[in-house]
TrEMBL record:
Keyword Nucleotide-binding found: yes
Keyword GTP-binding: yes
Organism, as annotated: Cepphus grylle (Black guillemot)
UniProt-listed SUPFAM superfamilies: P-loop containing nucleoside triphosphate hydrolases (SSF52540)
Pfam families, sorted: AIG1
Name of the protein in its database record: GTPase IMAP family member GIMD1
Amino acid sequence: MADSNEMTINLVVLGRTQTGKSAAGNSLLGSSDFESHRSPSSVTTCCSLGRSCRISGIIRRSGCELALRVQVLDTPSYPHSGLSKEEVTDMVRSALAHHFGEEGLHLALLVLRADLPLCPDESDHTIQFIQELLGPTWKDFTAVLLTHADKAEEAGFTEEAYLHSASSTLLSLLSSVQHKYIFLDNQKSIIKEERAIVLRKLLNFIRQNNYQVLLLKHSKE
């Protein structure tokens, strides 16, 4: 908390190339802080922190309305077209410690595309990567953000139908993070009302976790 009338939540976006990590970060911030576009190679090559303006009308605690600030750490993808796993891991771990070392991390958002299937090998590599970054309690501090939900909707899937048809790999991942997931419509995510819905869901996950934060220190000497 910056003061008694304000709350700041710290988030990091993680995921593969072209899943929409940076675009999701921009949606959460209500800005265009992070570079995001289609590319034959990984666009994000370094970590970058974005901060939102004060947001009102989102959260109340003890009967009082609080202003909300959102901080999002954008990260290079893993696998990356130009960086090794070790380079990405060290870079992200260092940035987490630098930006959130004092206040702690509320949630890591694993960004997956709703319009592409999640395969077992991809899931295994992703989970291993997150475990190395966040440690043994990663499940308590990780939520899944399913981007391009509009594409799934265009294909005729409601959220319920989508989950009913989803691969066992994805369902197992969602179960492991206590079903903390959000569908993000890329066409509507820039709309203020849609952003408020997503932020309220994230705050609910944080509330369910008793507002705990994950303290991360850069262990590499």
